[in-house]
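Record minuted for completeness.

…
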Amino acid sequence: MLGYALRRVLSAIPVAFIAITVCFFILRLAPGGPFDGDRALPAITLDNIRAHYNLDQPLWNQYLIYLGRLVTGDFGPSMVYSDFSVGEMLAIGLPFTLMLGVSAFLVATTVGLIAGSLAALYQNRLPDFALVALVMVGLVIPNFLMGLFLQLIFGVYLDWVPAGGYTPGNYLQLVLPITVLALPHTARITRLMRGSMIEVLGTNYIRTARSKGLGARLTVARHALKPALIPVVSYLGPGLSYLLTGSLVVEQIFALPGIGKYFISAALNRDYGLVLGTTILYLFVILALNLLVDVIYAWLDPRVRYR
């Protein structure tokens, strides 16, 4: 197991290198730049600014300089927020973004597993149809539209929870953002769990357990749950990465202090350093989660062997 994990880590290095290279050159080769504002700067001022950020160097040299900084853990300076480096800004916004994404992930996973299992146990009956229809609402409506709808209904008209903003310690302000993030992933997990559980419940060893008089609850808990989780686990790693990246838009809608406000502002202002830093951060999160999912496979299914 340790050897397999090590090989996966080593195989992720060229993937990360290629992704960083592609992102770097796409940003630099696209028309426009961080200092092409509406008000033109004097030529000498623009030259000094470009020299400060190494933008006067050949593109290949800029790339090598960035890689050298990245190896030491330095994401470089921000070209819009001059008082902060990219690393400092990520350190400010990342804890909140992680808290929001992980909270939505836990809610979506818990509700999805329960709803999917119940739908499978009541296959083609009213609870099955009701649960599937309910969770599908979150899948077909985009995040930004669902966020505005929930803000209007529960934050403005009913005034049950705050419609936006965040004050440390006021967790009611997180109810709507977490709900918006969790809804589509709850639907996906429910569908995966339902289909997998139906397939497992139809296998021979489950029928044998039932024929021996084992109750439905014990049959599901002891024999059906772990093998039914395998397709779900394959989704959980990418699912959490989607939640973290999807939180960027939700943070803007609900005016939350995460990475979202920095990333969107950087994208609009062509802040090379901040856009690259955020992209690389999410890249490493995705690679780590995919590795974790592969390792969990061995625990869920003893038939899996890593050679």
Remarks:
- The mean pLDDT is 80.
